[in-house]
Write a structure and sequence with these properties.
The protein has 112 residues and is an all-alpha fold. It has one domain. 68% of the residues lie in helices and 0% in strands. α1 runs antiparallel to α2, α1 packs parallel to α3 and α1 runs antiparallel to α4. The radius of gyration is 14 Å and the shape is flat. The N and C termini lie far apart (29 Å). The C terminus is likely disordered.
Length: 112
């Protein structure tokens, strides 16, 4: 069901954003990550309750694809981290505005 998958994707976005809180090189990215953690934590809690009430408890573990994305992010730091995090590959429904990135990363980042 969509509830469980959405909660799983939200949890992955939270994990990526928690990494950004410590690995990012810019205050703007860290602020965006703080917002993501706060907003998505509330959303994921609501989705998990809804999924459970419908008899579809969400997975407590990320999918292998999601885990690869988190592992990839975990191996990066600074501008390289910011660039990859901005792509939003760990949480596709949300994209970070490129204006949050420092100029060097912005030039190498796909247009959003």
């Amino acid at each position: 069901m969509i509830h469980g998958k959405a909660a799983d994707a939200g949890s992955t976005g939270i994990a990526a954003s928690k990494l950004a809180q410590s690995k990012s090189s810019t205050a703007q990215v860290k602020t965006f990550a703080d917002t993501m953690v706060t907003d998505h934590s509330k959303l994921v809690d609501d989705l998990k309750r809804l999924a459970t009430s419908k008899g579809v408890p969400p997975s407590e573990q990320p999918s292998s694809k999601q885990q690869r994305e988190i592992s990839k992010l975990n191996g990066l730091s600074g501008v390289a981290f910011d660039k990859e995090y901005a792509k939003g590959s760990a949480f596709p429904p949300t994209r970070m505005p490129s204006s949050c990135l420092p100029a060097p990363a912005r030039r190498r980042t796909i247009q959003m």
